[in-house]
Specification:
Layout: E1 2-4, H1 11-28, E2 32-34, H2 45-48, E3 54-55, H3 66-81, H4 84-89, E4 93-98, E5 105-106, H5 110-115, E6 121-126, E7 129-130, H6 132-137, H7 139-145, H8 150-164, E8 169-175, H9 192-205, E9 211-217, E10 230-233, H10 238-245, E11 250-253, H11 257-266, E12 270-272, H12 288-298
Parallel strand pairs: 1-2, 1-6, 4-6, 5-7, 8-9, 8-11, 9-10, 11-12
Antiparallel strand pairs: 2-3
Length: 308
């Protein structure tokens, strides 16, 4: 079994990390336990029913409360930091670590597969573990595991139905301002006016098509600031906003694993703009598989994204 122990970032980062390990699990028949997913486990059908947040999912052996999940995480953390699992299990246990954003840990590396051949337990610490090939290969099964609970699905459906009543083309807009005001010196922080400008450019890009926008934000927005645009506000809930973005025709927003997960889950072309003066183009909207191909083929390391 592989056990994930590190709480890195927020929902987007946790989903991305878990997804890579699930893809690895499917391909290599290795069960995964995510001890760092507790505070988000109640949002999804599979993990809400499993105290240990396992893949393949199983029913709870104990009541699946958040307190119990947090206790499991606190017990495992010192075992990783002190490499205690290796002292207890000897050659049957292993701790692996990936905390350097400049050096990804490839789960499909033959040397890694060989190193865990006879291990009973592998504890994984860090965030930069990847298995792009198998994530794309097993994307359907990964997505099945992260189906939100029914109440969230219904709210997403209501939001999308409402938004599509007044447009032919729906563009999701991820307006992230809270933590981006200070992250990386505000590199990806944009004013509402910057977002409005980007939206106007995207509307013009699609010409005569009736283009509407779904606004999903971590800040309070005034509708009057979008007066010349057809806009609908998202549900305002962390999982419902994310999965509403995944139901749009296109997504725009700053670099973020939050919107990248929506791009992956819904197969939605996404434009991550990095500057207020950046011009959109149809080629600038990328599917998740395009992002992966760009990363593998054109960049030594995919740029580290903010902790979502």
């Amino acid at each position: 079994m592989i056990v994930l122990t590190s709480k890195y970032g927020q929902l987007g980062n946790r989903l991305q990390l878990f997804a890579h390990f699930i893809a690895f699990s499917i391909e290599n028949d290795r069960p995964v336990l995510n001890a760092a997913f507790g505070e988000y486990s109640h949002l999804f059908e599979s993990t809400s029913k499993d105290l240990l947040c396992r893949y393949p999912a199983r029913g709870p052996a104990l009541p699946a409360g958040r307190g119990a999940r947090e206790l499991i995480h606190r017990i495992l953390q010192p075992m990783v930091r002190n490499r205690r699992v290796e002292r207890i299990l000897g050659k049957r246990g292993l701790v692996i670590s990936s905390t350097d954003p400049e050096r990804e840990f490839r789960l499909d590396d033959p040397s890694f597969l060989a190193s865990i051949e006879n291990r009973w337990v592998v504890l994984a610490e860090g965030y930069y573990f990847v298995d792009y090939h198998n994530l794309l290969k097993h994307a359907h099964r990964v997505k099945q595991h992260f189906l939100p609970r029914e109440t969230h699905v219904k709210n997403v459906e209501k939001t999308i139905d409402r938004a599509r009543q007044s447009c032919d083309l729906l563009v999701g807009v991820h307006i992230r301002q809270g933590d981006y005001r200070n992250y990386l010196g505000g590199k990806y922080f944009f004013s509402v006016g910057d977002y409005v400008s980007a939206m106007q450019k995207v509307r013009d890009l699609f010409g005569t098509r009736r283009t509407g926008f779904l606004l999903c934000s971590d800040s309070q927005l005034e509708r009057k600031e979008f007066s010349d645009l057809e806009v609908t506000t998202g549900p305002g809930h962390i999982i419902e906003d994310m999965y509403s973005l995944a139901r749009c025709d296109y997504i725009i927003g700053p670099p973020s694993t939050y919107s990248r997960w929506a791009c992956f889950y819904g197969d939605v072309p996404t434009w991550h703009f990095c500057g207020a003066d950046q011009e959109p183009s149809l080629n600038g909207f990328m599917l998740y598989k395009d992002m992966v191909e760009w990363h593998i083929g054109n960049a030594p390391q995919y740029p580290a994204l903010p902790a979502d």
